[in-house]
Design brief:
two-stranded antiparallel ribbon, coiled coil, 238 residues
């Protein structure tokens, strides 16, 4: 891979977003999901603070929507590091961009840019444009594949762990609910038994008291009989 020419990062950036500014050197797309394709440069020990917060999104070159700044900078750095030596698709893109404001139609712009590009590097046909553009598409596609693998792993590691926790909590709640049902049944059984005990207490108390009364009557019958016999013994056998 050849070293990038000075300012190529800013040029590449201007191809894809409006009002491009120089991206932070070596800034990857996302630390949590950055691929191995483009390695970030070492960060300075004390970077200067920006004068105002940078917006999280920027407008794409077509002006049709907003794109994430961190991924813009990631792809720009990726393409900057992969820039081929000599004139190729990016130099043609720069020539094409310089045609803006000349009042030419789209076809004329592409043709004029091609003439300027040929003068720059002596290219005889458009093969260099197609092969270099395809190479950059391949680099972007490879980076996307690696990124999606990181996403899949992140989903498995983070979301999977949350799903496991979710299931454990649901299972625990189901077990607690069953315990509540079991405890409520025991409470209901105890209440039924308490009602039965109240009736049985009255019944058993009545039986015991009746038995006591019968005992007392019989006891007194025996005592009275013996005392009567003793009285007669004392009376008749003196």
């Amino acid at each position: 891979m050849a070293d990038s020419e000075p300012g190529i990062g800013k040029k590449i950036l201007s191809f894809f977003i409006k009002d491009a500014e120089e991206p932070a050197a070596g800034q990857p797309g996302n630390a949590a999901t950055a691929t191995g394709t483009a390695q970030p440069a070492p960060k300075p020990s004390a970077p200067p603070a920006p004068s105002q917060p940078m917006p999280a999104t920027v407008t794409n070159a077509a002006g049709t929507g907003q794109v994430d700044r961190k991924f813009v900078e990631h792809f720009v750095n990726l393409l900057e590091k992969a820039n081929l030596p000599g004139p190729d698709y990016f130099e043609y893109k720069q020539a094409l961009q310089s045609m803006d404001g000349l009042g030419l139609g789209e076809e004329k712009q592409f043709q004029a840019a091609w003439a300027s590009f040929k003068a720059m590097g002596g290219a005889k046909n458009t093969d260099i444009l197609k092969t270099s553009a395809d190479q950059y598409l391949g680099i972007l596609g490879k980076d996307r594949d690696a990124f999606l693998k990181d996403v899949e792993k992140a989903v498995k590691d983070r979301v999977g762990a949350l799903q496991d926790e979710h299931k454990k909590l649901e299972d625990a709640n189901a077990a607690y609910a069953q315990q509540i049902i079991d405890l409520q049944k025991k409470i209901d059984d105890n209440k039924n038994r308490l009602g039965q005990i109240s009736g049985e207490v009255s019944e058993q108390t009545a039986k015991i008291n009746a038995n006591k009364d019968s005992f007392e009557v019989t006891y007194l019958s025996f005592v009275d009989q013996i005392k009567a016999d003793l009285a007669k013994i004392n009376q008749y056998l003196q």
